[in-house]
TrEMBL record:
Keyword set includes Membrane: yes
Protein's recorded name: Putative high-affinity branched-chain amino acid ABC transporter ATP binding protein LivG
Keyword presence, ATP-binding: yes
Domain ABC transporter as annotated: residue spans: 6-253
Alphabetic keyword roster: ATP-binding, Cell membrane, Membrane, Nucleotide-binding, Transport
GO biological process: D-alanine transmembrane transport; L-alanine transport; L-isoleucine import across plasma membrane; L-valine import across plasma membrane
PROSITE patterns, alphabetized: ABC_TRANSPORTER_1, ABC_TRANSPORTER_2
One Gene Ontology term of the molecular function aspect: ATP hydrolysis activity
Lineage: Bacteria, Pseudomonadati, Pseudomonadota, Betaproteobacteria, Burkholderiales
One cellular component term from this protein's GO annotations in UniProt: plasma membrane
InterPro entries given in the database record: AAA+_ATPase (IPR003593), ABC_AA/LPS_Transport (IPR051120), ABC_transporter-like_ATP-bd (IPR003439), ABC_transporter-like_CS (IPR017871), BCA_ABC_TP_C (IPR032823), P-loop_NTPase (IPR027417)
C-alpha cells in the first residue's frame, strides 16, 4: 500500500455559537486524487481552510508525509509542503504569467535577502533556474505561449491553470484545489480534468474540494462527504454514491 501523505484526525472548529466542524478526519495516500464534497454549509471549505492554515482549529492532529505539521499560517503550511489554490482566483493581476509562477517558486529558494539586495552571482543563477522552471510549468499546464502576458489578460480557464502552475512551483507534497471548476464552461472543465489526471499520473497527490459532483466522481480515488460539519461517508466514489446518508444529504438535493 502506498504511503500516507496527509493524515488529519479529530478536527473541530467553532465560530461563536456555530460548531462548523466536529471530529473530522481524512487520510490521503500518495498519488491519490481525494475529493471533499458536501452541500452548502457542510463545513468543507472550513475544513479545507483549517488544513491549509487559513483557520486555526480548536482541536485536531495533523501529519504531512509522516511528520507532524502545525496549520497555524498559510506560508508555514506551504513551506511544509501543501500548496493550495483559491475558489476566488488570487493572482498578481499586473504581473506576467511567468512572474506569477516564479513567485510560487521562491518558497523553495536558497539565496537570502542579501543575495537579492546585492545581486550576487548565486542569486542571478538561481533566478535563471526559477524562470526556466516556471516556463516548464506553464508549458505543463498548457499556457506556455502566454508566459509574457499579464495575468489579468488571460481567459478565466487559463487563469485557473496559471494558479495550478504557481501551486506546482512550490514542489508540494500535496496540492489542494479549492473549487477549481467553479465558473468554468463544459470545455474548460474537460481541459481541467485532463490536467488533474496528468498531475496524478506524474505521481502528485491532490485534495479536491468541488461542487461539481460528476467531476469529483469521475476523477477521485476516494471521497469524503461532510454534512453539518460532520463526516457522513468516506470511500470510493461508487461506495459513496450508494450511501443512504449521502443520497439524502447531498446527491438527492438540487437535482444532482
Amino acid at each position: 500500500m502506498s504511503e500516507t501523505i496527509l493524515k488529519v484526525q479529530g478536527v473541530s472548529k467553532r465560530f461563536g455559537g456555530l460548531q462548523a466542524l466536529s471530529d473530522v478526519g481524512i487520510e490521503i495516500r500518495k498519488g491519490q486524487v481525494y475529493g471533499l464534497i458536501g452541500p452548502n454549509g457542510a463545513g468543507k471549505t472550513t475544513f479545507f481552510n483549517v488544513i491549509t492554515g487559513l483557520y486555526i482549529p480548536d482541536a485536531g492532529s495533523f501529519e504531512l508525509g509522516g511528520e507532524p505539521y502545525k496549520p497555524s499560517a498559510v506560508h508555514l503550511v506551504a513551506k511544509a509542503g501543501i500548496a493550495r489554490t483559491f475558489q476566488n482566483i488570487r493572482l498578481f493581476a499586473e504581473m506576467t504569467a511567468l512572474e506569477n509562477v516564479m513567485v510560487g517558486r521562491h518558497v523553495r529558494t536558497r539565496s537570502g535577502l542579501g543575495g537579492a539586495v546585492f545581486r550576487t552571482g548565486g542569486f542571478k543563477r538561481e533566478e535563471q533556474e526559477i524562470a526556466a522552471r516556471a516556463k516548464e510549468l506553464l508549458d505543463y499546464v498548457g499556457i506556455g505561449k502566454y508566459a509574457e502576458y499579464k495575468a489579468r489578460t488571460l481567459s478565466y480557464g487559463d487563469q485557473r491553470r496559471l494558479e495550478i502552475a504557481r501551486a506546482l512551483a512550490t514542489d508540494p507534497k500535496l496540492i489542494a484545489l479549492d473549487e477549481p471548476a467553479a465558473g468554468m464552461n463544459a470545455t474548460e472543465k474537460v481541459v481541467l480534468r485532463e490536467l488533474i489526471d496528468r498531475i496524478r499520473r506524474d505521481g502528485r497527490t491532490i485534495l479536491l474540494i468541488e461542487h461539481d459532483v460528476k467531476l469529483v466522481m469521475g476523477l477521485c480515488d476516494r471521497v469524503t462527504v461532510l454534512d453539518y460539519g460532520k463526516q457522513i461517508a468516506e470511500g470510493t466514489p461508487a461506495d459513496v454514491q450508494k450511501n443512504e446518508k449521502v443520497i439524502e444529504a447531498y446527491l438527492g438535493a438540487g437535482g444532482h
